[in-house]
Design a protein that fits this description.
The complex is a heterodimer of chains A (about 600) and B (about 180).
Chain A (H helix, E strand, L loop, with lengths): L33 H10 L3 E7 L2 E6 L4 H10 L7 E9 L11 E9 L4 E9 L6 E3 L9 H11 L2 E3 L66 E5 L11 E7 L2 E8 L7 H5 L7 H6 L6 H16 L5 H30 L4 H22 L8 E2 L2 E2 L5 H25 L3 H7 L7 H6 L5 H5 L6 H4 L20 H24 L18 H6 L1 H13 L6 E9 L2 E9 L7 E5 L1 H6 L2 H5 L4 H11 L3 H5 L1
Parallel strand pairs in A: 2-5, 6-7
Antiparallel strand pairs in A: 1-2, 3-4, 4-5, 8-9, 9-10, 11-12, 13-14, 14-15
Chain B lengths: L2 H4 L9 H11 L10 H10 L22 E5 L7 H10 L5 E5 H6 L20 E3 L6 H16 L23 H9 L1
Helix pairs in contact in B: 2-6, 3-6
Classes of the chains: A alpha+beta (about 600), B mainly alpha (about 180).
């Protein structure tokens, strides 16, 4: 197996390791906030620990009290954590502690009214076969994330309505994210001649394609027509499979089958150095690589406590917003193509503008799609001289083009007929299902992470967050069009206020020294060598950081054990949660509306399946 | 030039093989099938700037029965592999495969439990395109390479060995048994 060279984990060097009882190396939260104070007042001894950790509110609770606690923080008027963002688990078996529960469940809760975030950690009793109560009675949106944890970690959720595997094939023999399971893969042949035994199997590996009798998803009735859409289907935007139960042309039930693009991003992340994972993050949501880079590096920088130069922050904002426009343009073109048969022209127009944005990306980093431009500590290189001129030209042109698209669509009778009233999602459902991004705002929730929990200097920009109460596809279409205009506004402000200075931090333990320095400075050479061969170490701790990516809230949860490799890396992809709403949105509608709904959710399967 | 001197104007001579190959080269219809990042570049190849129509491959068909070429554009997971194999089997001869990008060619950066290390483990590949993802120009170059390959094909390649199957009507108890006999 050829992976990264063996990783030495620096447990021995950590002081007072045995003093830390429950959360291994990361340390218990300390201090208290108003919210944790109220929780401790209410639950007293049942709370293991509560307080702040890496400036996040964290509560450790026993599994017996988990449901009570979540009910309390959701319904109590002064707490009102009404949204469940993410569920994940942490396998602590490789951490140097004994006695405590092997698995910890980690829940991210959000209060939209009070703009607060709460992390709940629940040690799961049961050792190697852990059991925790399911949160599905409280949050519908817990369904899929819990199935994911069940699939990848092997945690049993009591009371879960549909405990099946979600990403891996049903017959898969193990739970891949458990720590005793190796990363897998194959040895890479490095031979120079074909006489080597490594090549004996080359060209002889072609497998037979066996047909497996499809199992009927639970809750479906053979008396109706069962239609299989995908995984190879032109309008599922990738390799999504939907099993649809139809009465005539009316949809009764949908069972999405995911995992056809499951690439093991999280397992790979736990075997790669911090600096090397930036390149992987590109390939998750491949339509908004900049935003994926951005979310990842922000998380690591938060763990490192690393200050970022002003210029780098502004460049990041420009790139993130350009990427949002590019992603929305692609959404628009494919959505129109799916919904109205006359849309081929709009595909051509919108991709024409997208190509101009990709040209700008190519100018700064040389790639069109998988960019890896935003790096830990700043950005890869400074903006090239011609960039700003070209960007200004583009910014002048874009609003006119948006007007042109809207002239073709907004009041078009065909377009309105296909979108208005379709895919309705109420405000309560959107919050309860853990929607984010345009899906949330289309249902009347005034929430944007850039404004409400600002990161990377977004508090310095003046922009509006488009919100609509209609909750249908048409509202989401209008919102996204407005979002693109607002992104143009943000970029204009950023370009006007682009400061001079460093484009990457000069902390040499984190960022590579400039090439010219290597020739003259021995110290720079040593830093370069250490960074390239070993990377850098991140202090122990855990951290969740969400950003407003083009499709919604993209969150990274990282647990560091003090080594150069993340101990646990979990990605919360917005499309994954948003896609969960497809059943709710499409029930009772026509078959053709499923296609509209897939388009309006704006899924990218690389991010759904990860 | 022998025969051509005797022919009236507007008539050319060629072999059927090269005529057919010429036709196949200039209308290779790809399957409308995208997997991951490379699929975005495949779509970009189809749009106005790169314009795959210049090479006669603009007609992306959603049905494998109507497609000549499958562009495997992205990483192939364990769950997807049987599907790709099935789609490939459903395509009619002659058919070609382009492995677009390093993931489809050899697994790429994803050497882990989930990803098959190259689509050539399940279906035969004609042209490999390096890149992560390859630029649209690279895909067009791969198409050109495929055209060169198509130009050298012969009918003999597709000739099935003629083994007539004789079955008496009473021997046929179902359509499946006929099929089994034919395969045997």
């Amino acid at each position: 197996m050829l992976n990264v060279s063996p990783i030495r984990r620096p447990y021995e060097t950590l002081p007072n390791l045995n003093d830390i009882s429950i959360p291994a190396v990361a340390g218990l939260p300390s201090g208290e906030t108003e919210d944790t104070k109220r929780i401790v007042e209410r639950f007293g001894e049942d709370i293991i620990a509560a307080g702040e950790h890496n400036s996040q509110q964290v509560v450790y609770v026993h599994a017996d009290n988990l449901l009570d606690l979540v009910n309390f923080v959701k319904n109590e008027a002064n707490l009102s954590y009404e949204g469940l963002i993410d569920v994940t688990a942490l396998d602590r078996s490789k951490l140097p502690i004994g006695g405590a529960e092997r698995f910890h469940l980690v829940y991210q809760l959000r209060s939209y009214q009070r703009k607060q975030h709460l992390m709940i950690v629940c040690p799961a009793p049961g050792g190697d076969s852990p059991v925790v109560p399911s949160l599905t009675p409280i949050f519908q949106g817990a369904n899929w994330p819990e199935r994911e944890v069940l699939d990848l970690m092997g945690v049993t959720f009591t009371g879960h309505p549909d405990p099946r595997r979600i990403l891996m094939p049903a017959h898969w023999p193990y739970h891949p994210l458990r720590k005793e399971i190796p990363e897998g893969g194959e040895p890479v042949p490095f031979s120079m001649t074909f006489d080597d035994p490594e090549f004996e199997t080359l060209g002889k590996q072609i497998l037979p394609s066996e047909s497996i009798a499809p199992a009927l998803p639970p809750g479906m009735n053979r008396e109706h027509m069962i239609l299989n859409m995908g995984p190879h289907h032109p309008s599922t935007h990738g390799v999504l499979r939907l099993v649809v139960e139809l009465d005539g042309e009316t949809v009764i039930n949908i069972d999405p089958d995911l995992g056809y693009l499951h690439s093991g991003f999280e397992k790979t992340g736990e075997n790669k150095r911090y600096k090397d994972y930036v390149y992987y993050s590109d390939r998750m949501d491949y339509l908004s690589a900049m935003n994926n880079n951005y979310g990842y590096v922000l998380t690591i920088e938060k763990l490192l406590g690393l200050p970022i130069p002003e210029r780098a922050q502004v460049i990041r904002v420009i790139m993130s917003e350009l990427q949002r426009i590019a992603s929305h343009l692609f959404w628009l073109s494919t959505h129109v193509l799916d919904v109205s048969g006359t849309g081929m022209s709009l595909l051509m127009y919108a991709t024409r503008e997208r190509e101009r944005i990709l040209d700008l990306f190519e100018m700064v980093c040389g790639a069109r799609l998988t960019l890896s431009y935003i790096r830990i500590g700043g950005v890869w290189k400074d903006l090239p001289p011609a960039f700003l001129t070209n960007l200004r030209d583009l910014l002048k042109m874009l609003p006119k083009q948006f007007d042109e698209y809207e002239a073709m669509l907004t009041s078009g009778p065909l377009w309105r007929k296909r979108l208005e009233g379709i895919g309705y999602l109420s405000r309560e459902d959107a919050i309860n299902m853990g929607m984010s991004g345009p899906m949330l705002r289309g249902s009347g929730v005034d929430w944007d992470l850039r404004r409400d929990m600002p990161y990377g200097g977004y508090e310095n920009y003046d922009f509006k967050v488009p919100v609509s109460n209609a909750g249908d596809c048409y509202a989401r279409y209008l919102n996204r069009m407005e979002e693109m205009r607002q992104s143009v506004r943000i970029i204009e402000q950023a370009v006007a206020n682009l400061p001079d200075g460093l484009y990457r931090t000069d902390e040499r333990k984190i960022s590579l020294p400039p090439r010219a320095e290597l020739d003259v400075s021995m110290e720079a050479l040593i830093h370069h060598f250490k960074l390239v061969t070993e990377g850098f170490r991140v202090p122990p701790g855990m951290c969740y950081q969400g950003i407003e990516a083009s499709k919604g809230e993209l969150g990274y949860f990282v647990y560091s054990d003090g080594s150069g490799v993340p101990y646990r890396l979990h990605v919360h992809g917005p499309s994954f949660n948003n896609l969960f709403a497809i059943s709710k949105m499409s029930k009772g509608e026509m078959l053709s509306d499923i296609v509209t709904n897939i388009g309006t959710i704006d899924i990218v399967l690389g991010e759904v399946d990860r | 030039m022998g025969l051509e001197e005797k022919l009236p104007e507007g008539i050319l001579t060629t072999t059927v093989e090269s005529l057919v190959n010429w036709g196949r080269q200039n209308s290779t219809w790809p399957l409308l099938f995208g997997l991951a990042c490379c699929a975005m570049e495949m779509i970009a190849t189809g749009t106005a700037r790169h314009d795959i129509a210049r090479f006669g491959s603009e007609l992306f068909r959603a049905s494998p029965r109507q497609a000549d070429l499958i562009i495997v554009s992205g990483r192939v997971s364990n769950k997807m592999a049987p599907v790709i194999k099935r789609i490939y089997d459903q395509m009619l001869e002659p058919k070609w495969v382009i492995a677009m990008g390093i993931c489809a060619s050899a697994g790429g950066p994803f050497n882990n439990y989930a990803i098959i290390q190259g689509v050539d483990k399940i279906i035969p590949v004609d042209v490999y395109v390096p890149g992560c993802p390859p630029r649209p120009e690279a895909l067009l170059y791969a198409l050109e390479k495929l055209h060169q390959k198509q130009s050298k094909e012969t009918f003999a390649k597709y000739k099935q060995p003629a083994t007539p199957v004789f079955m008496k009507p009473e021997e046929i108890d179902s359509l499946d048994s006929l099929h089994v006999k034919q395969l045997a």
